[in-house]
Design brief:
Pfam families: VapE-like_dom. InterPro entries: P-loop_NTPase, VapE-like_dom. The protein folds into 4 domains: 213 residues, RepB DNA-primase, N-terminal domain (Alpha-Beta Plaits), CATH 3.30.70; 183 residues, no CATH class; 197 residues, Rossmann fold (3-Layer(aba) Sandwich), CATH 3.40.50; 107 residues, no CATH class. 36% of the residues lie in helices and 18% in strands. The strands form 7 sheets. The chain has a 6-stranded mixed β-sheet. Strands 4, 5, 6, 10 and 11 form a 5-stranded mixed β-sheet that branches. Strands 16-17-20-15-21 form a 5-stranded parallel β-sheet. Helix 18 links the parallel strand 16 and strand 17. The longest helix has 22 residues. The chain starts with 8 loop residues before the first helix and ends in a 12-residue tail after the last strand.
Length: 778
């Protein structure tokens, strides 16, 4: 083993600074002998002196292999994909051993790919930087603007396949060797005969010019390279990049290929002669495939589907909601059609020796799905797999697998079992995941105008106070946080109070942005499972007419608000699972005394609304969410500031319905400075003395606290013992142990007397009402 190798520590440090100046640098080093024992350190800025010393110590003196994470700028926490929020660098890690031929031929093949534009696929630009690692080459491409980790990994995979590299190195958190450092190898590689080597920087040779950067649009890999599984021949079901509608000419028919029948079908929405389709959606999809097959650009096809002048898109306009939803749905249809067009002229990825498709092969199953125009994806918001095409939208996955198994045999002459198809459908859905609400919020751009604090006063006539401004902002920030961090604490509910017909429910519906993300009326009397299943599909849920609550549903609502997860078993699932809650509740009511007791009301944020400007609100609601998303992203709390707690408590107390306990106890004990036992309280209220429910106990305590009495254990007269003993009761806040005691006693004929307790337990001076001759205290 070579031991005299020395890293160019200054060169490695200068490289890290050059590639991303002033960004953090994450370095990780591992032992080259025995267990690797990885250790890491993050430098908040690429100070070359500190970096060089670190490299020299660990890679030089201690002979530890040293690496970096190019995207450390967006790393928060331990090194893994989940902690990388964005990606500025795409990369490949090409090992010589993954290429055919002799060692020299392997090296030439990799170098040709990276350095020779005639050998490199045309869609791959020249790398920003290339360095030799000792066993291969690593290269990176710097992006002008960061992109999402999932998109980056798909592009990394496409680069790897396009350059014919080995699998498994596309992870955005992957460690790459630092150029100009020594590859000391590990025990296994040295045992295989490899020798340590210095990984020299091959491109660029100097750091005089800034690193070249690219737009993500500069990388347009062929569809088959964007597949997340299998080999490079594996078909693609969904595209990684979005499709934007292109402008149509004034005479839009000119963009359509020259076919009288199909032109008429697209213009008028009628089935061409000799064709048969069972629905408008099938006709629309067939026309989309026909347009793409005849050379139309995807963006132009999308524009045709969205243009009202073409009836072929009526199905989209009738099915989807606003223009954003319509474009999203139409774009998915164009992507599905692209998969069909791509698969039509291609061979089966895995044929048998006689050229037939190999049965049950995963790549062949995906190819068959593309041929039929079946798209699969995972909706992370509803935690459900979604299927589009071939009229499978509302079918169970077991039925879908059976249907496709039959269709493959009859139309494609390809045999695949239902179990194999189901397995591939699940795998494909797992690879193509999306979250519609999170993507919507992340796509909104705040214009910088502050509206979030005052939307209740601006559009619902709510009094403009500091408390109401906090209610307005915190509700929306909490809703954003629930989407970005499901299960996060948000156990409060904004309550809109106002006359019937002012627009409370319409306002809440508009707040949800999409009808599909809105629950119109959450049934508080439903079971936990039913409510949980409803909320699993909702972002904003309305609780209507809170004035109809009884004490039981009021308690259930408070308990329900306090929970951050829901546990239930979905149909066809084997076991119940916990689902972190991603929704918030908003209450609406026509009354102003809907709270049923004095406990737990901090969860309700009440506001009185007047006439609501629903139209004006609809015009700014996206900007409200954009501002809320911005404020949530910078870490603003969704809890009410402490200095507003008293104001909130006062507002909540005003909404409490009259409580007979309050009337009885305030009329008997109000204004007294004394002590009283719980048994006496129960007698005053007419409650069974043997047993007190937890609800009654909390209710009594809340009323006594409101009357300025505190709960505790005090020395009070116990008739059964004939002495004073420590028992549970209440003491006025202005009283102490020396203060007099009040007690309630009941005569044999049922009359109740409340009076002060004398030295020997006798009642004196009744306090409930003036004594008459026939009322003798005992």
């Amino acid at each position: 083993m070579k031991t005299n190798l020395k890293p160019d520590s200054n060169g490695g440090a200068q490289y890290l600074y050059w590639i991303n100046p002033n960004a953090p640098a994450y370095l990780e080093h591992m032992a080259s002998e025995g267990p690797s024992h990885p250790r890491s350190q993050t430098f908040n800025s690429c100070a070359t002196t500190d970096l060089a010393a670190f490299i020299e110590k660990h890679n030089g003196n201690q002979r530890r292999n040293i690496y970096h994470v190019p995207n450390a700028e967006f790393l928060d926490g331990k090194r893994n994909k989940a902690n990388i929020s964005a990606v500025r660098f795409l990369h490949v890690d090409l090992d010589f051993k993954d290429y055919p031929g002799k060692p020299a031929e392997q090296v030439d093949r990799v170098k040709a790919f990276l350095f020779d534009s005639d050998n490199r696929p045309s869609w791959i630009p020249h790398p920003t930087s290339i360095w030799m690692t000792g066993g291969g080459y690593q290269a990176i491409w710097r992006l002008e603007e960061p992109i999402g980790p999932d998109t980056a990994e798909k592009l990394n995979m496409a680069l790897l396949k396009g350059l014919e590299g080995g699998p498994g190195t596309h992870d955005v958190s992957r460690l790459l060797r630092i150029p100009s450092t020594v590859n000391w190898l590990n025990d296994k590689k040295r045992k295989d005969g490899r020798e340590p080597a210095i990984g020299h920087l091959a491109y660029p040779t100097t750091f005089k010019a800034p690193p070249s950067s690219y737009k993500v649009d500069d990388f347009v890999p062929p569809d088959h390279l964007l597949s997340s599984g299998g080999d490079a021949k594996s078909p693609k079901v969904a595209n990684v990049t979005s499709i934007a509608p292109l402008p149509l000419p004034e005479k839009a028919d000119d963009v359509l290929p020259d076919d009288t029948e199909w032109r008429a079908a697209i213009r008028d929405g009628k089935t061409p002669k000799g064709k048969s389709y069972s629905s408008r959606s099938e006709l629309m999809f067939a026309a989309t495939v026909w347009m793409l097959s005849n050379g139309m650009q995807p963006g132009t096809v999308l524009a045709v589907l969205l243009a009202p002048r073409f009836a072929i898109g009526d199905h989209i306009r009738d099915r989807a909601g606003d223009i954003i939803e319509q474009q999203s749905y139409a774009e998915r249809q164009v992507k599905r059609a692209l998969g069909v067009v791509s698969a039509k002229g291609s061979e089966w990825p895995t044929p048998t020796d006689n050229g037939q498709p190999k049965s049950n092969d995963p790549n062949n199953i995906r190819h068959a799905l593309s041929k039929l125009g079946v798209a699969v994806r995972r909706n992370e918001f509803t935690a459900e797999d979604e299927f589009e095409g071939f009229r499978l939208e509302d079918r169970d996955i077991n039925d879908i697998a059976d249907i496709l198994s039959s269709k493959f045999v009859r139309h494609l002459h390809f045999s695949a079992s239902s179990a194999a198809i189901k397995r591939e459908l699940l795998a494909t859905a797992h690879e193509y995941r999306y979250h519609p609400v999170r993507e919507c919020l992340d796509g909104l751009v705040w214009d910088g105008v502050k509206r979030l604090d005052t939307w209740l006063s601006d559009y619902a006539g709510v009094e403009n106070t500091e408390l109401h401004r906090a209610f307005a902002a915190k509700t929306l920030i909490g809703a954003v946080r629930r989407i970005r961090k499901p299960g996060s604490k948000f156990d409060t509910m904004l309550v809109l109070e106002g006359d019937q017909g002012v627009g409370k429910s319409r306002l809440v519906r508009k707040l949800a942005l999409r009808d599909a993300w809105f629950c119109e009326s959450l049934n508080l009397k439903a079971g936990d499972r039913e409510r949980a299943q409803i909320l699993a599909r909702a972002w904003i849920a309305e609780c209507q007419e809170l004035d109809g609550l009884n004490k039981m549903t009021h308690e259930n609502l408070k308990k329900f608000l306090s929970e951050s997860t829901d546990t239930y078993r979905k149909p066809y699932d084997k076991n119940a699972r916990q689902y972190p809650r991603h929704s918030i509740l908003i209450g609406t009511t026509n009354e102003f005394d809907y709270l049923r007791d004095l406990t737990g009301n901090r969860r309700f944020w009440p506001v009185k609304v007047k006439q609501i400007d629903v139209k004006g609100f609809a015009g700014v609601v996206e900007q409200l969410w954009a501002e809320a998303a911005h404020r949530e992203a910078v870490g603003e709390s969704a809890t009410l500031p402490k200095h507003l707690w008293n104001a909130a408590a006062d507002a909540q107390a005003e909404r409490v319905a009259e409580d007979p306990y309050m009337d009885a106890l305030s009329g008997t004990l109000g204004g007294m400075v004394a002590k009283v036992s719980m048994d006496s309280i129960k007698l005053i209220l007419g409650l069974p003395t043997a047993k007190l429910t937890p609800h009654d106990s909390r209710r009594i305590k809340a009323v006594m606290e409101t009357l300025d009495w505190r709960d505790g254990t005090f020395r009070l007269w116990v008739s059964a013992r004939g002495e004073r003993r420590p028992v549970r009761g209440f003491m006025a806040n202005d009283a102490d142990e020396s203060s007099p005691e009040v007690a309630a006693r009941q005569t044999k004929d049922g009359k109740l007397t409340v009076a002060l307790v004398g030295k020997n337990g006798e009642l004196i001076s009744p306090t409930d009402e003036p004594q008459t001759d026939d009322q003798v205290p005992f």
